[in-house]
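ok trying this again, last paste got cut off
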Amino acid sequence: MSVYDERHEELEKHEFMMGKARGRLAVTLDVLTDALVLVGQHGVYCDSARHPGKPAMDVQLITKAITDAKELISGVMAELKKPVGTTE
Protein backbone atom coordinates (compact mmCIF):
# COMPACT_ATOMS: atom_id res chain seq x y z
CA MET A 1 0.00 0.00 0.00
CA SER A 2 1.28 3.46 -0.91
CA VAL A 3 2.12 6.03 1.74
CA TYR A 4 -0.41 8.28 -0.01
CA ASP A 5 -3.10 5.70 0.72
CA GLU A 6 -1.92 4.86 4.23
CA ARG A 7 -1.71 8.49 5.33
CA HIS A 8 -4.47 9.90 3.14
CA GLU A 9 -6.34 11.71 5.93
CA GLU A 10 -3.20 13.14 7.48
CA LEU A 11 -1.94 14.33 4.08
CA GLU A 12 -5.30 15.85 3.21
CA LYS A 13 -5.45 17.76 6.50
CA HIS A 14 -1.91 19.14 6.29
CA GLU A 15 -2.12 19.96 2.57
CA PHE A 16 -5.32 21.92 3.24
CA MET A 17 -3.71 23.88 6.11
CA MET A 18 -0.26 24.47 4.60
CA GLY A 19 -0.47 23.87 0.88
CA LYS A 20 0.53 20.76 -1.00
CA ALA A 21 4.33 20.95 -0.70
CA ARG A 22 4.54 22.12 2.92
CA GLY A 23 1.74 19.76 3.94
CA ARG A 24 3.56 16.77 2.51
CA LEU A 25 6.78 17.87 4.19
CA ALA A 26 4.91 18.18 7.50
CA VAL A 27 3.65 14.62 7.17
CA THR A 28 7.19 13.54 6.26
CA LEU A 29 8.41 15.09 9.51
CA ASP A 30 5.73 13.11 11.37
CA VAL A 31 6.89 9.88 9.71
CA LEU A 32 10.51 10.63 10.62
CA THR A 33 9.49 11.44 14.19
CA ASP A 34 7.71 8.08 14.42
CA ALA A 35 10.86 6.37 13.11
CA LEU A 36 12.99 8.27 15.63
CA VAL A 37 10.77 7.07 18.48
CA LEU A 38 11.04 3.47 17.31
CA VAL A 39 14.81 3.70 16.98
CA GLY A 40 15.00 5.26 20.43
CA GLN A 41 13.00 2.39 21.91
CA HIS A 42 15.26 -0.09 20.14
CA GLY A 43 18.31 1.73 21.49
CA VAL A 44 17.18 1.03 25.04
CA TYR A 45 17.65 -2.69 24.44
CA CYS A 46 20.80 -2.49 22.29
CA ASP A 47 23.52 -1.20 24.58
CA SER A 48 26.94 -0.49 23.18
CA ALA A 49 29.52 -3.10 24.20
CA ARG A 50 32.21 -0.42 24.39
CA HIS A 51 30.16 2.29 26.08
CA PRO A 52 27.62 0.85 28.55
CA GLY A 53 24.55 3.03 28.92
CA LYS A 54 24.77 4.30 25.34
CA PRO A 55 22.92 2.78 22.40
CA ALA A 56 24.84 0.63 19.93
CA MET A 57 26.75 2.59 17.27
CA ASP A 58 24.32 1.68 14.48
CA VAL A 59 21.41 2.99 16.54
CA GLN A 60 23.34 6.22 17.19
CA LEU A 61 24.03 6.63 13.46
CA ILE A 62 20.41 5.99 12.51
CA THR A 63 19.22 8.47 15.12
CA LYS A 64 21.61 11.13 13.82
CA ALA A 65 20.60 10.52 10.20
CA ILE A 66 16.89 10.85 10.99
CA THR A 67 17.48 13.95 13.11
CA ASP A 68 19.54 15.52 10.31
CA ALA A 69 16.82 14.70 7.76
CA LYS A 70 14.22 16.38 9.97
CA GLU A 71 16.39 19.49 10.24
CA LEU A 72 16.80 19.67 6.46
CA ILE A 73 13.07 19.25 5.87
CA SER A 74 12.30 21.94 8.43
CA GLY A 75 14.65 24.26 6.56
CA VAL A 76 12.87 23.57 3.29
CA MET A 77 9.52 24.24 4.94
CA ALA A 78 10.80 27.58 6.24
CA GLU A 79 12.05 28.51 2.76
CA LEU A 80 8.69 27.60 1.20
CA LYS A 81 6.90 29.78 3.74
CA LYS A 82 8.84 32.90 2.74
CA PRO A 83 7.21 35.26 0.28
CA VAL A 84 8.48 34.97 -3.30
CA GLY A 85 11.51 37.18 -3.95
CA THR A 86 12.67 37.13 -0.34
CA THR A 87 16.20 35.97 0.33
CA GLU A 88 17.93 34.93 3.55
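PB: full thing came through this time. The chain has a mean pLDDT of 89.
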